[in-house]
Amino acid sequence: MPIIVNLDVMMARRKMSLNELSEKVELTLSNLSILKTGKAKAIRFSTLESICKALDCQPGDILEFVDNRRKVSK
Questions:
Q1: pTM greater than 0.90
Q2: Structure confidence at residue 17 (pLDDT)
Q3: Burial of 61 (0-12, 13-18, 19+ CB in 10 A)
Q4: pLDDT of residue 1
Q5: 66 Cβ partners below 8 Å, 6+ apart?
Q6: Which member of 29, 55, 60, 63 has the greatest number of CB atoms within 10 A?
């Protein structure tokens, strides 16, 4: 999957639990867990905005694009 979700990294940096983040962004633990594990197929901008506010970060701190098509030549 070319989009990597680094939500767990940002939560660790902010010393915030999944329960605490869930309460702050008003998202169910189940939906937040799906996002955290990278199993989500989409995210609303409003949800991303709430998460960024709660974690005091930028969207790029949470989401990372990895181009798997690039090959390193030897």
A1: no
A2: 96
A3: middle
A4: 61
A5: 2, 3, 4
A6: 55
